[in-house]
Structure formats: structure tokens, C-alpha cells
Amino acid sequence: MNVIKGFQTTAKHLMEEAVTIQYPEQVQKFHQRYKGRHHLRRYENGLEKCIGCSLCAAACPADAIWVEAAENTDEERYSPGERYAKTYEINMLRCIYCGYCEDACPTEAIQLGQEHQLAYTDRRDAIYDKDMLIDPPGEGASDTPQQVEPGAYNRSIPDMADPT
Predict the structure, then answer these.
(1) pTM of the shown model
(2) Which residues contact 78 (CB under 8 A, 6 or more apart)?
(3) Mean pLDDT of 3-24
């Protein structure tokens, strides 16, 4: 009797639409608020948004972020502020993708993107450094470090949306 009930249950579910998808041939669309791989953003003129304040590292509950700051000079300018992130590392094995780093950043330098295919063959590959995280400069913008006119970035940070 139990065998017949089992076959009835199976036959009933055979006609339903499948829930699974054939990954990687079919990729599921993620919600807009999905938090994936981290990105370090730049201004339109190519300067880095990260000013090395380490607020993202302080906000990280998993202690996955390491930031070491250095001073900007007119000969080597990385960001519009007094400092820049000389070293920026995220241990992706520790990261819980909570987005607290994104919320804590005063310049919106760190943002979580939509990328979800993160696989590692070695634990060292899971530590993303600044070169892996930073976006390439936009079209027509120069890479960092940039040489600027002496005193151009003293005391006040210009509005980087309008680089004139």
C-alpha cells in the first residue's frame, strides 16, 4: 500500500515545472541588491576614491580587510586627499558579504558588485589585493600615480565630479 502512495506522489510531481537550472549554461538572474565581489572605484579623472581612512576595516565584523595608508605628494598623487591606500587587501574566505564596508566608506570607494563566481585553488588566491580590486581608469583618464601642479590639492578636496 505504501508503495502505491509513493508512486502516486512521484507521478503527481513529474508533471510540474522543474525548479533547478542547468548551470553554467543557464545563469540565474540575481536581485539588484545582491552583494558579490568587491570593487575599489575611481573618480572620472582616474584618481582613486580610497583615501586610506580604514573605516571599512573597522566596520568589518569578520576582520577581512587590511588597509595601510601612505601620504600623497604632488609628484605621486593617487587620491585627492592627503592620504591614499598604499595596501588594500580583502581576505575573501573571511568576508561574509554583509556590505558594512560599503556603508562605512565616506568616499564610496569600496562597493560590492554582482560577480558571484569566486573559486580558489589556493588559500593565497583568496586574498584580493589592491591591483585585483581597483577598477581600470575610465576612457581618457590617466592611471595613478599622477603628477599634479604643486599645491593643487592642498587643504580642500575638489569636487571630483567636475574635474575643471
Answers:
(1) 0.76
(2) 47, 48, 72, 84, 85, 144, 145, 146
(3) 85
